[in-house]
Design a protein that fits this description.
347 residues, alpha/beta, TIM Barrel
Length: 347
């Protein structure tokens, strides 16, 4: 029994990922290249994936349009069904069979906590179980298949960018950058998530904020928020790797150096660019100058040839990656797609 327990502890310790110089390594000191897929459209709907962008682009507009058609009660039932069926265990089975060793899960804050406008007591946080239940399921499915999970805050309180669809930004309300209450909620949310998953080694780490795109001179406000969230996470979780994206859709790291945590990686994104070293020089320079790993948290929306060439380039450079997204409506750039039916078109 003692030997079995020691073996189990050793095996779990071997799974943990950490930044070691310019590499992400497991507990055995072996380099781990994350090869993943982003589950876009699940917890955060985006109009372009559903081909609704002409009249409803961010999720709150999509939801409002649905509610206008079918009413509040039916809309609630629809979203309940959506959240429990958009990603199923069979999807994780497929990704595992295809050779992926990880997934990136985009989270919407409003599945975990209330918007600041709805908090019964301003400045306090009300926690919701649905987001944790959904995430727990996908973490369990991945753990059974020895796959890592990157948790990505895709829609932060208030929304983090002018591109409304990415973060469900509603310009009639204060953005993340215009509200200290939203930023405090984000830091509190990360502390809650980190406490929940602090002992789970198959959670690879926390992608603290997806694709901020806001006028943030010198990156000062972005770094301040990242440091605030880092402090909150480290109060309850000292083990997990932290991923940080630059401003302007992840690639402007102005003000985000030098690194402020001993277990962090920089996470650029890559779309619609040539697959050559020149397109990644900015990120490679960041890695080499500051001796931190890189993780390409999103890339894709392209052809099979482009994907093939991107994998070759990234793996030659020792950079882990995640494609975006898994599912779309009528698209050849995602592994899974459905055709628009006459009923869908009418809707």
């Amino acid at each position: 029994m003692w030997m079995w327990a020691c073996t189990a502890v050793w095996a779990q310790d071997a799974v943990w990922l950490q930044a070691q110089g310019t590499q992400i390594q497991n507990g055995l000191g072996q380099e781990v290249l994350l090869r993943g897929m982003g589950l876009g459209g699940w917890m955060v709907q985006e109009g372009y994936m559903l081909q609704t962008q002409a009249f409803a682009n961010p999720q709150h507009e999509i939801k409002a349009a649905v509610e206008t058609l079918i009413g509040t009660e039916a809309t609630q039932a629809f979203y309940e069904a959506w959240l429990h069926n958009h990603v199923r265990e069979a999807d994780i089975d497929s990704l595992h069979a295809w050779g992926f060793n990880s997934i990136r899960v985009p989270l919407h804050y409003n599945l975990f906590t209330l918007p600041i406008e709805e908090e019964p007591i301003p400045g306090e946080q009300t926690w919701l179980e649905l987001g944790f239940d959904l995430t727990d399921s996908v973490v369990a499915w991945c753990k059974e298949r020895s796959m890592y999970v990157v948790l990505d805050l895709h829609a932060a309180p208030g929304g983090q960018g002018y591109d409304a669809a990415i973060s469900d930004y509603d310009s009639s309300k204060p953005s993340l950058w215009e509200s200290a209450a939203n930023r405090n909620k984000m830091a509190s949310l990360w502390k809650k998530i980190a406490a929940h998953y602090a002992d789970e080694p198959w959670v690879a780490g926390y992608d603290v904020l997806n694709e901020p795109n806001w006028d943030l001179p010198g990156g000062t406000a972005l770094r301040a928020l990242y440091e605030q969230c880092t402090d909150s996470i480290r109060e309850v979780d000292t083990q997990h790797l932290l991923f940080f994206e630059g401003n302007w859709f992840a690639n402007d790291f102005t003000g985000l150096t030098p690194p402020w945590d001993g277990n962090m990686a920089y996470s650029p994104h890559k779309y619609w660019s040539n697959n050559d070293v020149a397109t990644l020089e900015f990120a490679l320079a960041l890695r080499d100058a500051h001796q931190v790993p890189l993780y390409l948290g999103e890339a894709g929306e392209n052809s099979n040839v482009w994907f093939r060439d991107a994998v070759r380039l990234l793996e030659d450079l020792g950079i882990g990656w995640a494609w975006w997204p898994l599912k779309k409506v009528e698209s050849i750039s995602a592994p899974m797609s459905i055709e628009k039916t006459a009923g869908y078109q009418a809707l």
